[in-house]
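Possible regression after last week's pipeline update?

I re-ran a chain I had predicted before the update to compare outputs. Posting the input and the new output here so someone can diff against the archived version. Not blocking, just want to make sure nothing changed silently.
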Amino acid sequence: MVDLKDNTISELLSEATLNPKEGLVQQIYVILMDHIVNIRLKPGQAMSEKEISDSLKASKTPVREALIKLEDTGLVRIVPKSGTYVSPISIERYIEACFTRTQLEIGAVRRAAERSNNLRSVLNLESIISKQVQALEAGEGQLFFQEDQALHKAFFTMAGIPGIWELVKKTQADVNRIRHLKRLYNIRREAQVIDEHKAIVAAIRSGSPDDAETALIQHIGSLETEIDTLSSHPELLDYIETLNASGKRRKQAR
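New output (post-update):
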């Protein structure tokens, strides 16, 4: 079983810095989200406004607003008169998020294929894939994930509906946490992902909405595929249950 280290807020934020010339709320939100998604902050772990404020040398107001944004994405729970806690990892929310993303992204790649004459956008898609290949070859897992997100965002941008990607991201909290745990359990498919991305972009370049939809479904998979993948790795499901149970005990102990 994977054994993830316990970290305190102050330890995780000891080297984090904020740029006073940019929006503090968004910076704090991104920093905390990264620690939660990568399970450095575990389910049930308390997130003290004061500890975050002190560690980042920021006032409580932007910290509070960042925590509210995190609650909107499902990554934390704010309990009145108790505190803020990292949310449990929910398989149900994971399945729902996969369904939401698939349905919305089908529409995006179809619209992108209908705009295949936008050569600049097509070249941008191909450039992102090249960067993802480089990240894979360099063993840069985090960069690979960032380029993966950039590519899917670019589908929505090329489709002329970039705001929908922001909606998709709000549903992906547990998708991204489970994706991280899959990597830890060596449930990996990066090389296959590259090939699938190339197939989607090739279909978009050729101006074929049907082929783009087929390639996307082969990449993201159906709900049945996701359920089968999880079911075939009971050790992963057991660990998620252990994380959540430990988090519940941690919260009750406060």
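Follow-up from reviewer: compared with the archived run. The domain at 91-236 is CATH 1.20.120.530 (Four Helix Bundle (Hemerythrin (Met), subunit A)). Marking as no regression found.
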